[in-house]
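= Tokenised fold =
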Amino acid sequence: MNGRQGLHPGVTADEISRQLGTDAQPWSAATRQGYISRLRTWLGRDANGELYVPNVDARHGGYRMSDSFTTDWQTLRDLAGRGLAQRECVASDLQQAPDLVEGTPFSSVPSGRYAWSSWLQREMLDAIVDVAHPGRWSPEGRRSACGAPSAMRGLLAEPVSEMLYRDLLRIAW
């Protein structure tokens, strides 16, 4: 899917079929088109009435997501990127990022349903722990109570993060 919001921008229809099927038995074009159609219906339209998954358009190279489509994952990445790149935004952007966390990514998906998502889940967990670590956005964050909510939000996603538990112990001490 094309667009900055996709997980794999620029992949072809055949690549989508292989990723969601297997190399040995990729989805057929009809299966792929059926699922894309369902996705299009499920996601619906943006505030301007445009489809989040527009119909295939040769000018745009096939399937793509609308430019208005966003995800919490993309928002977290944007906040973290700005927060780490610009010192004056560090506290506000890196403190806002964990507020997007509601649990472990893909935790509501049945085991084995989306095998392709395991690497992405690990990437998401690492990024969440990184931005939830109070020391990332403030040297005082490691020791001050203001860092506790961030660390606790991170633990919603990665309940076995030793770093975040150490942060909470430092804050409590």
